[in-house]
Specification:
The structure is a homodimer.
Chain A (H helix, E strand, L loop, with lengths): L1 E4 L14 H17 L1 H12 L10 H10 L2 H19 L6 E4 L5 E8 L2 E5 L8 H14 L3 E6 L11 H9 L4 E4 L2 H10 L9 E3 L4 H10 L4 E2 L7 E6 L5 H12 L6 E6 L2 H15 L5 H11 L1 E4 L3 H11 L3 E5 L15 E4 L5 H6 L25 E8 L2 H17 L3 H18 L1
Parallel strand pairs in A: 1-11, 4-5, 4-7, 5-6, 7-8, 9-10, 9-12, 10-11, 12-13
Antiparallel strand pairs in A: 2-3, 3-14
Helix pairs in contact in A: 1-2, 1-7, 1-8, 3-6, 4-5, 4-6, 5-6, 7-8, 9-10, 9-11, 14-15
């Protein structure tokens, strides 16, 4: 790994808009699904997935068949992970509230789950059961009654779907599963077809076509953010074990060649030791080619004068994952402004959070931790304001409201108040 | 107003994408600001606003001059409204939390304000002081240290800006104000220029170019939702005063010709009376032409069998504003799934919420109340997860985490755990 002073480094970030050709194709797929419905979904399954799809919806019997195909230890681990994730997300749940005023008015905020949420799950090797749990459980905890999964069909698996994905979905409270992928699945969730009712929100990772389709339907439905490449920043001092740091950097680097793994440290000794450890550990990794390219292209060790200076670098990077391996990791927590998930101390290796601890692994990438949050229960709820104004309140404040409305030239607004004051005046007289 | 059975009515909703030409212009303006910075802003001010802008930033002296230009009663009303808005939004504020586990691990969620937020305020007649309060105060309550307002310059006002807007901004905690509008202002907030540092989020209403520019920069920064035309639905039974209902429908209709005002009622008598009242009240309205066209094109009275059936219609419409004028309005509150703000009872006329009561008047339009919320403090905060895993926790759960990682083919993830188990094992041995 390159070692350089932090001041000499600038992270290049790119927002993905796709090419004009990609956008045209996505738009055409979406319009096709809007006009042709299920027929378009079947024809795209044939064209893009090479699969003839008869029933779009996965049956209860197929889900039961999937359970028979996964082993006990997988099921037990998934269930324990799901319990942890559920317990953490339960703590995020908020209640509706009322504020009772002295004049008899009541103001309030109502919290409600979305009615129907679509979860996109990629096909093939990028289909991760852990990702199904992380996307579906917050919706389940929010109380979303209809959680719909879509995933591209293949020829293998249980009726074209990896049985582990089906089991994870069932465990996480997914209520409907459809064999449809790509931009066409996003279109079906946004606009609905004969067999797939439209959803209110679409979440989950996907390829460039899925991302562009989500961007396109944003407004018709809500979407989660468009995920960029995965990132880790490790902030460490000379108390950190270089083998731990190297292993954690590599666990990020193996995701894909675009992933970035960065160490920020005031310790020249640690910098050197980690660089050597990365090389050593790389040698025996099954996904060595990917991890090596990721480390070479996007991995770097940034040296800083102090841990405090390191924190400033971290805030500029706004990483998806941040690990702090330092003598007293909590000492720096208050100063961290921008990070999706913060892992503190030697035992909080990032995979702990990817799979098991409970907090969500769907995190803001590409520097968006400046303004975005880990996937959470709020993402699956909506608020409504409540205003119950009393007679006393309108008598007391009516004139001021009318004055503000008239200042803005909105006379009908003022008159809606005036007509009440007049009638109440008559009632009083 | 037309009267028809609710079953015969379908609301057409359109997501605004703009024409190809409009998108091309917006993209070109944004790229120009990215490459030329302040010079581009000055040149666009000349071209689009017809104004020579020397200093982009409004000075403290200009803000003081604005105070001298507004009258006492306006200032008092704005301050009282701001207090109410602040008090309501304070109740939305959330704290960071920790969850201490039996094995010594600590999980948590940190809440932090965004650092820098941009507030777009339209120029000319569409510049509403109330809108400045409603957009800025939630950011102020969230604790955002830098709240930046941009607004297109004119030749009138205080140095080109309506003094009431400047005063509202100062009262609402806006920390910087710049004379720049249109897509170029959005570009400046997203990418920064020599005199305007980049923001993390952009909020506030604007014309089609502002909306398209916000859509374009989404991802570089966060944006609020793209506002559609304003809407009101009144759900009323025969206890409602037709004059109140008509006045409230018209207060929505006067906004613009695209605004929609809908009455849903089981009472044929109320339907007739409201239709007549709307005609009567329309006659003397200063904005009669706008309100009349809005009522004719987008106004409708929908008859239903019962209030319960009316609630189902409301949930389909998912209105921005909902008024319930019925014998016991709270009786229906639990069944309302989709509405931005809910006004209950005869005295809760919509302008009460537009100006004064405290809840936000920036609400989800165009049916997006299905998945979106009124502007609130959460929109100006971000969350980070915290994971502090204990030695005991990794010893207990390490094997399960490794199994899940290996199932997904991510060996480096498993090894990041394994290396810790091995070292701890050695330490123990």
């Amino acid at each position: 790994m390159k070692i350089m002073p932090a001041g000499a480094f600038a992270l290049e970030r790119q927002v993905v808009y796709g090419s004009e050709e990609q956008n045209r194709r996505v738009k055409s797929i979406i319009e096709h699904v809007r006009s042709e419905g299920d027929a378009a979904l079947r024809s795209f399954a044939q064209e893009f997935d090479g699969v003839t799809v008869d029933q779009l919806r996965v049956s209860e019997a197929e889900i039961q068949a999937a359970y028979a195909r996964v082993d006990e230890s997988f099921l037990a681990a998934i269930r324990e992970a799901a319990d942890n994730i559920r317990r953490f997300h339960e703590k995020q749940k908020r209640t509706s509230w009322m504020d009772l005023q002295a004049d008899g008015s009541i103001l309030g905020q109502i919290m409600r789950p979305l009615r129907r949420v679509g979860l996109y799950v990629p096909g093939g090797k990028a289909a991760y059961p852990s990702s199904v749990l992380m996307n579906a459980i917050p919706a389940q905890v929010a109380g979303v009654p209809e959680i719909v999964m879509v995933t591209p069909p293949a020829t293998a698996g249980v009726a074209g779907i990896d049985p582990h994905i089906l089991v994870a979905a069932a465990e996480a409270g997914v209520s409907e599963i459809y064999r449809v992928g790509g931009a066409q699945a996003v279109a079906a969730l946004a606009y609905g077809t004969e067999s797939i009712p439209a959803a209110d929100k679409i979440v989950g990772p996907g390829n460039i076509y899925v991302a562009l389709a989500k961007r396109y339907v944003f407004g018709v439905v809500d979407i989660d953010s468009i995920a960029g490449p995965s990132e880790i920043v490790v902030l460490a001092d000379d108390t950190a074990d270089p083998a731990y740091v190297a292993a954690d950097l590599l666990s990020q680097a193996e995701h894909d060649e675009m992933a970035s793994a960065i160490l920020v440290t005031p310790s020249a000794a640690l910098a050197k030791a980690v660089a050597a450890e990365v090389d050593r550990q790389l040698e025996s990794l099954p996904r060595r080619a990917i991890a090596e390219k990721s480390i070479r292209d996007n991995g770097v060790i940034l040296t800083v004068a102090t841990l405090e200076a390191g924190v400033r670098v971290v805030n500029q990077l706004a990483p998806e994952h941040l690990e702090i391996l330092a003598a007293d990791p909590f000492q720096h927590l208050s100063a961290i402004e921008n990070a999706g998930a913060i892992f503190l101390g030697p035992y909080s290796s990032e995979p702990v959070g990817d799979y098991f601890a409970g907090p969500n692994h769907v995190l803001p990438t590409n520097g968006t931790a400046r303004f975005s949050s880990p996937l959470n229960v709020d993402h699956f709820m909506k608020k409504s304001s409540v205003i119950y104004y009393s007679k006393e309140a309108i008598q007391q404040n009516g004139d001021k409201i009318m004055a503000l409305a008239r200042h803005e030239g909105l006379e009908a607004h003022a008159r809606a108040i005036q007509i009440r004051l007049q009638k109440e005046g008559i009632a009083r007289g």
